[in-house]
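User: Design a sequence. Structure:
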């Protein structure tokens, strides 16, 4: 593994929330972002779950990459190994939510196990590897990416809840207004570019 980039983990954390937001800048995780954003409470619950999974997978996958994949020259299997780690963690979170948060577990339905194939989570791991982040950079990148995704889905859900009580023009009903709102949110987040940047 090459040397980690000389960039503060705190800058990586802030950039991954605002200027390199997984959903609004990299367009990763849009399926569940659009599908589960009609109710704020459910969207926020999914955002918390994604954040927790993203932090844990980045931490564990960094350790796996550094101490298993590289020493054993398993780079060709890295993607499969990363997905196995993500799937195992999602299964643990799913069982915990079923036990301790049954209402949220029922509301999330199929989208909870689908966190396994949420490309934002795998994307965070792959960005971590490509950018040669060290452990703390990877951890804070995972945390910031998760919080950025949570912020975006919660904001969209809050806006959609408000708009559900208003009369919209016929052409903007349904998914159309969701895409318009998402585009406007992405434009708003572009305003942060130049403050924090990560490559």
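Assistant: Done.
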């Amino acid at each position: 593994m090459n040397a980690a980039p000389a960039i503060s983990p705190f800058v990586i954390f802030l950039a991954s929330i605002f200027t390199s937001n997984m959903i609004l800048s990299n367009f990763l995780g849009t399926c569940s972002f659009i599908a589960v954003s009609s109710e704020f409470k459910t969207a926020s619950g999914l955002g918390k779950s994604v954040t927790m999974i993203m932090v844990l997978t980045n931490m564990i996958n960094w350790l796996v990459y550094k101490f298993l994949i590289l020493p054993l020259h398993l780079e060709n299997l890295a993607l499969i190994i990363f997905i196995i780690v993500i799937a195992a963690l999602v299964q643990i979170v799913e069982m915990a939510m079923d036990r301790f948060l049954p209402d949220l577990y029922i509301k999330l339905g199929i989208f909870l196990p689908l966190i396994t194939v949420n490309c934002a989570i795998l994307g965070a791991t792959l960005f971590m590897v490509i950018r040669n982040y060290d452990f703390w950079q990877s951890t804070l990148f995972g945390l910031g990416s998760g919080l950025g995704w949570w912020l975006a889905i919660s904001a969209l859900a809050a806006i959609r809840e408000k708009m559900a009580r208003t009369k919209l023009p016929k052409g903007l009903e349904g998914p159309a207004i969701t895409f318009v709102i998402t585009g406007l949110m992405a434009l708003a987040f572009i305003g942060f570019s130049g403050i924090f940047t990560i490559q």
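The helical segments are 9-17, 30-35, 40-69, 78-100, 102-108, 119-130, 135-163, 175-190. The radius of gyration is 18 Å.
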